[in-house]
Design goal:
Helices cover 40% and strands 14% of the residues. With 333 residues, it is of the alpha/beta class. It has a single domain (4-332), classed as TIM Barrel (Alpha-Beta Barrel). The protein binds S-adenosylmethionine and iron/sulfur cluster (SF4) (2 copies).
């Protein structure tokens, strides 16, 4: 969850940009590896062959440069980030520098590694429905692995979120995901599947039709409106995701508030367009801040990624959104 200090820091970074044009890499989404333990139906990160990955020393140098450049929140993702051997040490380093850490994981390796991960970090686990539905999309045994990881995260007192990718195969099973979240006192986010598999141009045929999207919105809206504490969406974000509303702040936060780092050490300002966006700047041969400032923020109205949509709404500074955001924080406190 976004704590008060982090929320105030984020607002200050937004104001600095809006008033003075000062760009800060407040939020970093660090894809540390493309290797994965799974091969989900809508995602093509896990490809055969060699994968470029950073070494621990280079990653630590980058982390220190991020902290010096004003980074306050790093989300580690992949592929499967818990496959990268240096992760526990890098996370410990980040926490020691006062950076908030979140980890987007399929949970396969969480039970075995939980003891060496820093306390207080946030874990986002993927769940797409009941066992048969989930495993058809995410591979045999993935439901059991997510439930095990959820129980581990709860026992270890990690902050927790479930992330559900909505497809035509599971859009009628969202209540199961919601009830699982509630039973484990865990927030849940829903994001619609992209038309092509992540990291490739493969058409997976799992996209939802407009009618299916409308059903999802109909299911979620009353829960959000009644202040349900386990749904981690504001109503404005729900409308954006469902394509009802295009009013995210522009330019997009990529390149002035947030940045994505690839396993090859490149920075990109976009989470879309074959996952890394068209513009990439290496931060291995120049300081992180300089590489970040070389990116140009882009005007863009649509995004599949719930985190980017949320951040763009926050950057809009619209009173209705800020009020909803604040109320949601209070409910979860
Ligand atoms: C790329 S994964 C990386 C982290 C980890 N391997 C996992 O699956 O949780 C990050 C999130 O993106 C979601 N995702 C993967 N492919 C997607 C797609 N085509 N559209 C929308 N979300 C997708 C995953 O389900 C997961 O929740
Ligand atoms: S969604 Fe996550 S678990 Fe599934 S293949 Fe992609 S990176 Fe791996
Ligand atoms: S809103 Fe547009 S520019 Fe920003 S990350 Fe998403 S797809 Fe990329």
């Amino acid at each position: 969850m976004v704590g008060a200090k982090l929320a105030i820091g984020a607002l200050l970074a937004v104001l600095k940009y809006r008033l003075f044009g000062k760009r800060t890499p407040f939020f970093v989404s660090w894809r540390i590896t493309d290797r994965c333990t799974r091969k989900c139906a809508y995602c093509d990160f896990n490809q055969p062959g060699d994968h470029v990955e950073p070494d621990l020393a280079t990653s630590k140098r980058l982390l220190h440069e991020m902290a010096a450049a004003g980074t306050k929140w790093i989300n580690f993702t992949g592929g499967e980030p818990l496959l990268w051997p240096g992760l526990p040490e890098l996370l410990g380093d980040a926490v020691a520098r006062g950076i908030k850490i979140s980890l987007c994981t399929n949970g396969d390796r969480l039970p075995e590694l939980a003891a060496v991960l820093p306390r207080g970090m946030e874990v986002s686990l993927s769940l797409d429905g009941p066992e048969s539905v989930n495993d058809a999309l995410r591979g045999k045994g993935s439901y059991a692995a997510t439930v095990r990881a959820l129980e581990t995260a709860r026992r270890e007192n990690f902050e927790r979120t479930l992330l559900c990718v909505v497809t035509r195969e599971n859009y009628q099973h969202l209540d199961f995901v919601y009830e699982t979240a509630r039973a484990h006192q865990t927030r849940v986010q829903f994001q619609f599947v992209t038309p092509y598999a992540l990291n490739s141009q493969r058409e997976h045929g799992l996209s939802t039709s407009d009618e299916m999207k409308a059903e999802v919105v109909q299911y979620l809206r009353p829960k959000i409106q009644s202040g349900d504490p386990w749904i981690a969406h504001t109503k404005q974000v729900l409308d954006c995701l469902a394509g009802k509303n295009e009013t995210t702040f522009n330019p997009c936060i990529g390149g002035w508030f947030g940045v994505r780092v690839t396993p090859a050490g490149e920075l990109t300002n976009c989470w879309g367009e074959e996952i890394d966006g068209p513009e990439r700047v290496s931060c291995l041969n120049r300081p992180f801040r300089e590489a970040f400032l070389a990116l140009k923020p882009r005007v863009c109205h649509r995004c599949w990624c719930i985190g980017v949509v949320e951040a763009n709404m926050l950057a809009s500074l619209r009173p209705a959104y800020l009020w909803d955001f604040y109320r949601r924080r209070r409910r979860l406190a």
